[in-house]
Amino acid sequence: xxxxxxxxxxxxxxxxxxxxxxxxxxxxxxxxxxxxxxxxxxxxxxxxxxxxxxxxxxxxxxxxxxxxxxxxxxxxxxxxxxxxxxxxxxxxxxxxxxxxxxxxxxxxxxxxxxxx
Length: 116
What we know:
Blueprint: H1 13-21, E1 31-38, H2 52-63, E2 71-77, E3 82-87, H3 88-98
Helix pairs in contact: 2-3
């Protein structure tokens, strides 16, 4: 017996699948520009109002053989403050999700492996 009389606000299975299958968007509240830097702070991409181009650049740099730990996604907040969003394998995972790619298996970094 149903006891609720209001409309069902839950999404349908098809709606959930459509959401899960769509590319991820990375949005930082109050950010008005995104770019990529290397470990020494040199810019590796132009500024963009969206993170999409910067995340695509991450994948291109990794594809060219750059170490993901040397790639940093930055954002400029409306206050003018520089914000470091992320780097390393986590950033690569976000970039893959933004491109609609399935997550790739990762190996731990050498310093993350326990020495027995």
